[in-house]
Amino acid sequence: MDDSSLIWDDGALVTIDQRGLPHEVRELRLGTVDAVIDAIRVLAIRGAPAIGIAGAFGVVIATAAHTVDGVVDEDRVQADADRIAAARPTAVNLAWAVQRVRTKLAEGADAVLAETLDMLAEDGRVNRAAATHAADLVQRLCPDRPLRVLTHCNTGRLATSAFGTAIGALRVLSERGAIENVLVDETRPLLQGARLTTWELAEAGIPHRLTIDSAAAWAMATGQVDCVLVGADRVTVNGDVANKIGTYALALAARHHGIPFIVVAPESTRDPNMATGRDIVVEERAAAEVIGFGGVATAPDGTEVFNPAFDVTPGDLVTAVVTELGVVHSAAGDSASTPGDPRPGKVIADIARGLYQRGWMPGTAGNISVRTGETAVITGSGLSKGELTEHDMVTVLVADSTPTAGSRKPSAETTIHTAAYRTTSAQAVVHIHPPFATALATRVGASDAVTTLRITDYELIKGLGGTEPAVIDIPVFPNWADVPRIGADIERYLAEHPAAPPILFITGHGITAWGDNISQARDRAECLEALCELVSRTGRLNAFGARDETLEIGLI
């Protein structure tokens, strides 16, 4: 096997049989729907993201089996998909993934396979983004020291398809030289921590110690734990977290000892249709898992057993839930947030709705982003800004604008945002189409070159972030049909003019403003629109000369 725990090979899903680890690394080749369902139920494949993707491949297998002469028998595939989705009830990823590929059935077997392969590729990017956000948060909460981190169950590439979530964060921290030691709960009754997590940490060269589950609280009490990192199988709207049994007890102990308790999971683990953890169906497993191990009985015959596979941790015990979008839930408020805003997607959606109501982001026009380290969260393309939710965001790399997370396409103007991030200290960017500023930009801009508009003698200039209180030179960029060309123009200009104000016009295409946070970026955009309205009502244009001249507006 390569770094991915799931491989599609000639009509079959190939994976590691996790039951054999750590003593035996053996492959499973799953070519039927029943084989996929059985592998999920017996925990040969386990981990919320992994069983989701495996379930999607199960639908691929079902579609191929029920396609004759290019025609899919959708009823039979849907019946198989229902069986797959019901294989394990607690992790939301399984039903989510099955539903996602179901939407492609009408397009045929090739479309179902293509969607599943996209999901597989996306999972690795999503996990790395979430892990990086979590590592950033851990280092802010526990700065300036090598870290002793406690983790529970298994959240690495075995539980996902690649890299891992909580273990992914440990990998990132280890790459930064920030790990002293990882304390691994054995995770009774099936010992996923002992069998799987220690195997993955050893493989990655991360120092670790194994402990019994019941020693975790004492390790915290005796100062051996700086932070707890766990994964999740489902996160409800209010931030309650379903995860491997024993997680709730860890959260209680961490709260008592003042230790950050951080959940790392993909957005697909969040369930927008489940309000609280009270509604989660917690799977109970066979008594045999508890009364014996390795074929040896550990309890008298006839002993009754309570064997829940999961528990539900209340959201108010969770320091933060971190996904590929950053911190999406925080019991501690801003103290546990990513740089800038604690829930960038939610804050972006809230501000976008306000700007939409003012008529400055009409229809699907305009976009907003927040920087989150090496990535930025930006509004998805083609969406009404009056109806945005935090789930309508896309995470992109600042370095090259490539999407790393989110099922939607990023905004067409993404390169404008990343140009500002690469050349300035901006932490948030707002691009809107308010009427007075857009009209003025159209009036003074050129079609094929950057011009400069100088505005003088207005009090509002002070709110634009420039260096002079009574005069400001604002660049006006041509509106190329090739939007990345606009971004390239902006990046070149800002690199050549480091003292340029944090605002700009695009001819006939609105304004862009940025700042240290999303509120400051919005405020600057508001000031510029108000200033443009004043100019339109009270000012004068001193020049409409050659396009390389500075056009100046002042009071009459």
TrEMBL record:
Class II aldolase/adducin N-terminal domain: residues covered: 346-536
Residues the record marks as site: Transition state stabilizer: C153
Keyword Zinc on entry: yes
GO MF annotations, alphabetized: lyase activity; metal ion binding; S-methyl-5-thioribose-1-phosphate isomerase activity
Keywords assigned by UniProt, alphabetized: Amino-acid biosynthesis, Isomerase, Lyase, Metal-binding, Methionine biosynthesis, Zinc
Catalyzed reaction equations: 5-(methylsulfanyl)-alpha-D-ribose 1-phosphate = 5-(methylsulfanyl)-D-ribulose 1-phosphate
Designated name of the protein: Methylthioribose-1-phosphate isomerase
Keyword match DNA-binding: no
Active-site positions on this chain: D233
Family the entry assigns: Belongs to the EIF-2B alpha/beta/delta subunits family. MtnA subfamily.
Pathway note: Amino-acid biosynthesis; L-methionine biosynthesis via salvage pathway; L-methionine from S-methyl-5-thio-alpha-D-ribose 1-phosphate: step 1/6
